[in-house]
Specification:
heterodimer; A: alpha+beta; Alpha-Beta Plaits; four-stranded antiparallel beta sheet; 4 strands; about 20% helix; elongated; B: alpha+beta; ten-stranded mixed beta sheet; five-stranded antiparallel beta sheet; 12 helices; 18 strands; globular
């Protein structure tokens, strides 16, 4: 089972930072997302893209996790050489993370 | 007190007009907001204005007004928009022109100015945010500097009884907060209600992104009639609680998932969403489905507003030259890799290899780098080379080198495209609130 089976994701941009929201379809799946989607796990998954630190904001009452990924947009939307300068497609990558082998 | 109905008519400068017209005609609205300014939109508009002093406002302003002004005049709802961009006064005149054309003589337009702080920024060498440089480092390249004004700056315009309020740079959610403050008489230090007004604005400011746009993933997140997606509106109570919904008969969906995705969109610390009018706190926001296509939002609050306002500076930063070519069938990836190696060598020979560049394959590593998807063999790839250059001539070489792969590169390359653009970049800084002087100009036919 992958994140895509229980959640959706959307990313956005703020300067040279990307925001990433992961939202459980069913709020009762939120604890699983919170266990698997640690800062370390995301830092590893996005290692070719995110050059800076990642912050995580757990929002259990919304069934959602919010991440801020620093230095993730190749200098920022307005000057980046990247095809997807906004980092809009970054959201899809988190959906590919495997949930099996959950530590709990 | 009956709820205030506020609609979202655009989430960006190029957004669709027909869903806005539908909202204007059938929404029984009290206000319709068009949010049309991205980070560097003003800098680009300023460049247009420097070529023609009558321009500098949103290119779709007249078309939008032609569509919605008749409903506005008939029903009496307010239109509020930042489509003034780099030239709000010219935008105001353009709206009057349309009113004249449509024979709507009583229409009043108010223009809010004061966001343009370029002279102040040139005189004060303040630090750039997210950088170790100061404003002076942009000397000679600076195009524009605009402070994010708040709802407070728009209140005189609403008090003047204007039907249409035109601004330049204002904080996006403040476009929605202003008519709520005006209608309900919320005080400028009522942090809780202002926070709730900001959450309503934030949910609406990207238009269809809260009502079924940008969320469909077939089989996982299905959206009914996406092609007919409707724009959203909020029914707001005097205490700030609100319901997000859309019109009957439109495509899309409004539910817990669409509202959560938009609530968190581009949000950093949910407890501290910095706005000119309030530091909004979304950490306790609750979303509750209260019927089909209706989501109640409550629990936002706020803290005292910041002493400084954010400024976006637009500046020229050279050129980007780019070329692309496709390879398909067996060995597509290997031929693409060979093409990239050829291009790297050509950059060296041209003396361009020290410039910042990206040489990558669309379909393999252009989005998320080499690691994700490394185990998947694509049927086709598209080689892409993009180089940041100081001059237009250097940038032209980039596309030419990709095109030369036709006769000089690996087998079977096709579909070359070349592009060149001048880079208008954006940086941010802070300005003390006292340095800003806002004005409201009322225009009438």
């Amino acid at each position: 089972m992958k994140v895509r089976d229980i959640a959706l994701a959307r990313s956005g941009d703020k300067g040279n930072r990307a925001t990433l929201s992961v939202i459980a379809h069913d709020p009762k799946d939120y604890p699983l997302l919170e266990r698997v989607l640690t800062i370390d796990r995301l830092q590893e998954h996005y290692r070719d893209v995110v050059r800076g630190a990642i912050q995580r904001y757990p929002l259990p009452h919304l069934g959602a996790l919010q991440f801020v990924m620093n230095d993730a947009l190749a200098g920022g939307v307005t000057r980046s050489l990247a095809l997807d300068a906004h980092g809009k497609t970054l959201s899809a990558a988190v959906l590919d993370i495997e949930l099996d082998g959950d530590p709990a | 007190m009956k709820p205030f109905r506020i609609g979202s008519g655009a989430g960006y400068s190029g957004d669709r007009i027909d869903p806005a017209l539908d909202l204007a005609e059938r929404g029984e609205l009290d206000a319709l907001v068009f949010e049309c300014l991205a980070e560097r939109t003003i800098a680009l508009a300023q460049l247009r204005r420097s070529h023609d002093p009558q321009l500098g406002y949103d290119p779709l302003l007249k078309e939008r007004m032609r569509a919605v002004l008749p409903a506005c005049a008939r029903q009496g709802f307010k239109i509020i928009t930042n489509m003034g961009a780099a030239h709000p006064r010219a935008a105001g005149q353009a709206v009057l022109e349309i009113a004249r054309e449509l024979r709507l003589p009583g229409l009043r337009v108010a223009v809010v100015t004061g966001d343009d702080v370029l002279p102040w920024m040139r005189e004060h060498d303040v630090p750039l945010l997210e950088s170790d440089q100061t404003v002076r480092s942009l000397d000679g390249h600076l195009i524009s500097a605009n402070a994010y004004l708040g709802a407070e700056a728009m209140l005189p315009a609403l008090q003047s009884g204007a039907d249409v309020v035109i601004t330049g740079r204002v904080a996006d959610p403040a476009l929605f907060l202003a008519p709520l403050m005006h209608h309900f008489g919320w005080k400028a230090n009522d942090w809780q209600r202002l926070g709730q007004g900001i959450v309503v604005g934030h949910l609406l400011e990207c238009a269809a992104q809260v009502s079924g746009g940008y969320i469909a993933d077939p089989g996982h997140v299905d959206v009914p009639r996406l092609a007919d997606v409707g724009f959203p509106l909020a029914e707001v109570q005097a205490d700030g609680r609100a319901v997000i919904t859309k019109l009957e008969g439109t495509g899309g969906r409004v539910d817990r998932l669409t509202c959560t995705a938009q609530l968190l969109y581009e949000l950093e610390d949910p407890g501290r969403y910095l706005q000119p009018d309030v530091v909004a706190d979304f950490s306790g926001v609750r979303l509750r489905e209260e019927g089909p296509g209706r989501v109640a939002v409550e629990g936002a609050t706020g803290h005292p507003r910041p002493d400084q306002l954010k400024v976006t500076l637009g500046y020229r930063e050279g050129f980007i030259g780019e070329g692309q070519i496709s390879y398909a069938g067996p060995g597509a990836r290997a031929r693409g890799e060979l093409a990239l190696a050829v291009l790297e060598r050509r950059l060296e020979l041209l003396g361009l290899d020290a410039l910042e560049h990206r040489a990558e394959m669309i379909g393999v590593n252009a989005m998320h780098g080499p690691w994700l998807g490394v185990d998947r063999e694509p049927y086709e790839v598209r080689v892409r080379l993009a180089v940041r250059t100081a001059t237009r001539a250097q940038a032209e070489l980039v596309g030419q080198e990709v095109e030369a792969l036709y006769l000089n590169g690996p087998a079977g390359g096709g579909g070359v495209t070349q592009s060149l653009r001048e880079v208008v970049a954006a940086a941010s800084a802070l300005i003390p609130r006292e340095a800003i002087r806002t004005e409201c100009h009322v225009l009438e036919l």
